[in-house]
Structures are given as structure tokens and as C-alpha cells.
Amino acid sequence: MNQEDKKIKARPWLHKWLRSTIDTSVIDQEELVAELRQSQKNNIISSESLGMLEGVLQVDNLQVRDIMIPRANIGFLHLNDSYHDILKTVMKAGHSRFPVIDENKDDVEGILLAKDLLKYVGDEESFDIDDIIRPPSFVPESQKLNTLLSQFRNSRNHMAMVVDEYSGTSGLVTIEDVLEQIVGDIDDEHDDVDEKKNILAQSDGRYTIQASTELEEFNEYFNCDMPLDQYDTLGGLISQKAGKIPRQGEEVKLNKFSFKILRSDGRRIQLVEVRRLEKL
């Protein structure tokens, strides 16, 4: 019995559901997604369930570089920062984990958990960052998200530094970033919606863009002239060009840009990767 058979045997309810819901003669992922979408149209599964199932399948195809927070957008701490400086940074950012560097951003010495600062409240003079930072985890840009998710689960780490082929820091990725590919955006009480960046530049000339980005913002950022007469958002324009809601992994070319769908739940596009065609 191979590993996949063991997984199915361990989850008989899932096997039974699949056999009763979809045509088990499908031979590839594309046909499976088509069957799942038909099941949603027939009201067998909800649109939310469809979106998550498509997200699960997409995790097998995406790489870390597709979802990582780029180096330029990381809030680093420094080994020689004082307790009060670190505390100010942590309170302003509202994150729970921070990479700690030495002299430059390629020298990640460890990860600081904000909760570990509590032990020094009222005893700031005894603060020594070396006593509380934890060993960093490193992953390559090319690592598949399903592998990364397993790594997070087995190591119980929630954050990993992303390195390029020269072992330089290119970004970071969290378990939340991976889970958002399945369930959609996860907002918590620390998220400031007004400050959320719609357009994130990657180090290799690509851009990760929220599909809800207003076309006026897109045009201003890229100094281009996407049409504004029919749609207000980038996702709406891409769907109109494609003549459908594109699936995750599909690419649409429009006005000297290539748009690769990173996340779509069958009802709308959520996240896209953008490249200028003249730079390909």
C-alpha cells in the first residue's frame, strides 16, 4: 500500500464523500477542479468550501516566492537595539515575531517573540537579546507550499526566513501566509486595513497585487492607462479580459502586463502576480 492509499484509508469519510460527490474517473487536477465547481453549482458544496478546496490544490503548485513578504517590507530588529527601542518597534508593528539581524539584512541571527519581552518589564537593565532570541529557520524561494506547511507543522515554527540562491535574505514567510492561500485573508485585531499595501514589489521585478486594488491606483503606480470605463478594480478587469473567473495558476495578458492568478475562490480573483511583458 503506497502513502496516498494509507492517507485515504485513514480518512474513510473523505473517500466516501469524494466518491459520492464527484466523478472519480477524473485523471488530473484540472478535471478535479471542474468537478468540484460543478458540485458547487449543483449546491452539493458551498462556494466557501469550493474556495478552500481549490486553495488546498493550489498549495501544491505555489512556491514560497509567490507569497513571501519581500525583504524591503520586513521589520527587522538589530542585535544592539536597546530594550526600549525594541519595545517601541514591537508596539508600533503589532506583530508577534521579528527577525533579528547583526550588521546587515543577510545576517539573520534569530527570531524574537514579542511575548519574551515581558520578563524584563521593571527589570530592563538585565535585558540581553541573546538570551531570548530563537534559532531562525531558513527555506529556499523555490520550496513548494505544501512542503513548507509540513515543515511548519513538524517543527512548530510559525515563521521562516526565505533565502535566494546566494543564501541572501529575500523575504520571510509565516504559517498564516500559507493558510491564507486556503481560507483567504486572515485579519486580526492588529491589522490596519487602511495601511494594508495593495501592491508589493518583489526583488526580481515581479509584483504581488491584491485583486481588489483600484485601477486608478494601479495606473498611478505603474504609470499606465488601464481602461476605467467598465470596471473599478484590477480583478474585475482581468475577469472581463479572460471572459470568466480565472483559476489559480492561469495567466492573462493585458496592456503590456502579464497577470498570473495566485488566489481565486471561484467567485472572484483575490491575489495576482504581475510582470511587465517588456521585461520578460
TrEMBL record:
The parts of the chain that form a coiled coil are none
Supply the PROSITE patterns for this chain: CBS
Question: Membrane spanning segments where?
Answer: none
Q: Name one GO molecular function term.
A: flavin adenine dinucleotide binding
The record's GO CC annotations read: plasma membrane
Entries under InterPro entries matching the protein: CBS_dom, CBS_dom_sf, CorC_N, FAD-bd_PCMH-like_sf, FAD-bd_PCMH_sub2, Ion_transp-like_CBS, Transptr-assoc_dom
Alphabetized Pfam families for the sequence: CBS (PF00571), CorC_HlyC (PF03471), NMB0537_N (PF21917)
Q: Where is the CBS domain?
A: 68-129, 132-189
Q: Which keywords does UniProt give here?
A: CBS domain, Cobalt, Magnesium, Repeat, Transport
Q: Is Transmembrane helix there in the keyword field?
A: no
**Origin: domain of life:** Bacteria
Q: Which family does it belong to?
A: Belongs to the UPF0053 family.
The record's function comment reads: Plays a role in the transport of magnesium and cobalt ions.
Stated name of the protein: Magnesium and cobalt efflux protein CorC
Q: Which organism is it from?
A: Cocleimonas flava
